[in-house]
What does this fold into?
Amino acid sequence: MTQPAAEVRGATKTYGGVHALVGVDFSVEPSEVRALLGKNGAGKSTLIRLLSGAESPDSGRVWIGGVEMERSTVQEAHRLGVRTVYQELTLIPGMTVAENLFMARWPGRGRIDHRRMERDAREALDRIGLRIDPRSLVGQLSIADRQLVEIARAVHDDPRLLILDEPTSSLAAAEVDRVVQAVATIQKAGVAVIFVSHRVPEIRRVASSATVMRDGRKVGDLELAATSTVEMVDLMLGETSQETERVAKPLTPGPVLAEVRGLDVEPKLHEVDLDIRAGEVLGIAGVLGSGRTELLQVIAGLRAADAGTVHIEGTRIDGRGLHRALSLGVGLTPEDRKNDGIVPEMGMDENLVLSDLGSVSTSGVLSKAKVSTAAREAMETMSIKTSSPHLAVGSLSGGNQQKVVIGRWIHAGSRLLLLDEPTRGVDVRAKAQIYALVRRLATQGKAVVFVSSEMEELNLVCDRVVVLNHGRITAEHHAPDIETDQLLLAAIAEN
Amino acid sequence: MTTLKTERTPSTAAARARMSTQQLNESGLAVALVALVVLLAFTTDSFFTASNLWNILGDAALVGIVAWAGTLVIVAGEIDISVGPAVAFWGVILAKLMGPWGGLPLAVAIVITLIGGLLVGAFAGWLRGQFGVPSFIVTLGLWSALRGLAQFMTDALPVPIQDSSFLDRLGGKIGPVPTAAILLFVLFFVFAFVARSTSFGRSVYAVGGNARAAGLSGIRVLRVRVVLFATSGLMAALLGIVYAGRLSSGNSGAAQGLEFSVIAAVVVGGTALSGGRGSMLGTLLGVLFITVIGNGLIIWGVNSFFQDVVRGALIVLAVLINTLLGRRSGAGVD
It folds into this structure.
């Protein structure tokens, strides 16, 4: 009997009070491609980190190729034959493909043997059927090619287990084919592959089996050919019990504030039509790579579309720049709060008024009193916990930081709020407060667009939800009939 | 991929401690300055005399007048290394305007010079802001070009300025007090006010703290950068006029190495080169500290070359201490 390429038994991992993994058993055979499914927070990334040595389990054991991983380090896992390719590519754009393939392991002593390196590089690329010149600079390659080079690097020295984390989420349809083919070639060579993804069509093409996780537990090992997508969704979601109540009665929306027509942003969005109304919380549901962020960027004027238009009360704003959109009342809270949202060294008070310094100053001179008042008001109405409004906002919790970023646009009087994943990395209590805040804003007549990949929260806060799948709107639901499993199904199913 | 760890909240004590790293650094520097003064007062006869102390302030002004704007530039995450040549250049321009280029009256020449400094600075800011050319490169280009232009225009000879009592006064004293020192402190209060209490000042800190977040919040980052470098250029022109007063001439060799002294004073004062943090008070202490050390080394009779060694070691030491202070107060923001 052959050893499994990788095996995990009874793995448990807890972070703070969060049970990331609870008694998980998992194994994958050589030449098997196993999809790993589960919604955000289900435990997929923790399981992967255990296998790649980046984390050690609190209890339980890990074997790679029959050898137990005694010390959980990345080097040890590497030695045992585990390779991981993450979403964030780690190639150096200024160096050639060959140099990247053998990063830190360039052939030759002291002096790099370029001829040997190129020969070895060609071999490594052939191994996955990738036809590019190893002397080309990575910076000039397409995203798909880079992804494939990253994969070639991972498999060139015959690993046992290859873990691919969302390998196709940034790729267009035609490019996905190439990754699928590369995986097929790798599988034939005897490597076990774990393929983490939300994209069911690709999963079905590339994998034969799937493991579904939920709330830190494994809830199913499936034969993909025999399992419908509906069944997968049911396993991923389980019994949805909700502490917060879903929106029972949708608000009567006001007039249309923004019109999106025929929007195309290659390769992410296709023929998107949307109406954004005042006094309504519109949810946009979609998994990673569905095009949500691009959609918000166009509506905020940050990005031009390849086709189609966005108007706010008749004024065209797509591609016209952020300030045009801001002047028309748009406010955008970015997905990456830390890098795009807060100025970490400044206090919550200054972060709060940053979008409308004019309202707290006269002739360019700030009024400490006005800033203070604005800060105190925000702290009260949004329950922002901080020992002082001057305390550097970088030291606040994620939830409080998010409230400050949202509060910035409330302070600036925005009437069309675009919230990109506003509850990511936010604790449970702050989430509930943010939902309540968003409902209040809509009741006050503002238009709110709530983008999320966490399907369960959408019916807690939205009056209406549209689903983005591979860049197209594939479903629309209205409260009180917004069902999480239908949202997830529409988001991941094949069209 | 979402992280399952909810973001850690450092304890309030650590958070408060981090906020006062700046205050800690300033207090430490103030103590070091006092200690230095005391040391010099006791080990020499000539340090602690009225005339020497006024001289120190006068010398400090020759760096400090441009260091306030320099602080804002570094807070914004930028750098301006063209200060020295700019000072020399604008001094030469003033002398030329009052002399061979039309014999213009002093007031007119001063206005033209100041506007010139403003415009050249704005141009540098525009290159940085609009095209993303790193400010180090833009100001490096100016560093070379302005000095070269000044030397070219003067054949490296001083351009004398005909008697002007105003200029003499500007470059000299009012009573026992060097005029430049008065200017130094007036500007200190102006810039401290701007940094702390104006939209522009806070925008500079926002851009330096996180330019992307600032931009997405609606701050006009390009505008901020242009105005910032324009201000730096204006201050260089102003100092150039002061120098012209002191030397009674425009001198293409003036202010050699000034940019180094400015940056040294700013970082010793606790402003981080990475931007987002810093204070005028810190820079004031930094300027005084460096000036006092320079003065002290001369009085002690230390070899002038060795003075440079001391300055170099000092800057690294000061920034090292500041870095360690910042780290001790818990999980850094970097």
Q: What stands out?
A: Chain A is about 35% helix and 25% strand.
